[in-house]
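Reviewer 2 asked us to include a model.

Predict the structure of this chain.
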Amino acid sequence: MAAAVQSGVTQPPNSTIYVKNLEERIKIDDLKEALTEIFSEYGNVIDLVAKKNLKAKGQAFIVFEDVEAAERAIKEVQGFELFDKPMLLDYAKTKSDATVQKEGNEEEFESHKRRRLAEKERKQAHQAAEEQKKFKRPAGGAVPDAAATRPTKATRGAGLKSSNPGAGAVVPEEYLPPNKILFVQNLPEDYDVDGLTAIFGRFEGFREVRLVPGRKGIAFVEYEAEAGAISAKESTSGMGLGAESKPIKVVYQRQ
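Predicted model (structure tokens):
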């Protein structure tokens, strides 16, 4: 084992360990197998999450059955070299799905998932807005030329904003932060309020479906709170409707 390194622990103890600085070129299955073999020495591992998407590369979450096992693992494995890279360990910021499902009932588990999803979507919205700001900001604080500052002609279509670099950043629909109203698109023309209510009315806190006069294929669905809208969006986005099973698009309403 490599020489001990500074603990680097910033979170209070819990049964889930966050591991970073993992070798990104290793196949996920091989990485999971190696991590399982190492951490199983310290207790019963009930879940192990490692993903291959770009943002999650080099990271993993190890979920133990109890906090004591996680404490032993962090004490012993901190700085251990795996595939020639020292692992950096900390406790996870929140409880894992596996832990909540083990300790709580179904209602608590569903509530936990909704909170996690909402936080994830808020982070995505914030990141998208920051990227838009960087893209629109003139390099080096230079003063934009006359062509760049000339007012642009209004663009047709709801929700679109000026392409003027000084205008506020427009967050893509897919990354809008959660709220209690959903904007549904690509609906079959023959779907009315009753048909949509049958789909969206089964989620907690459903209030109403609103069609847009003179506009086909779109609707707004309102809930009493974000929780219902989050569940509905997660369950219905991409659902195939109509004779052709065309997938619908479900996003949060732009505020």
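The chain has seven helices and twelve strands. The radius of gyration is 24 Å. We have added this to the supplementary material.
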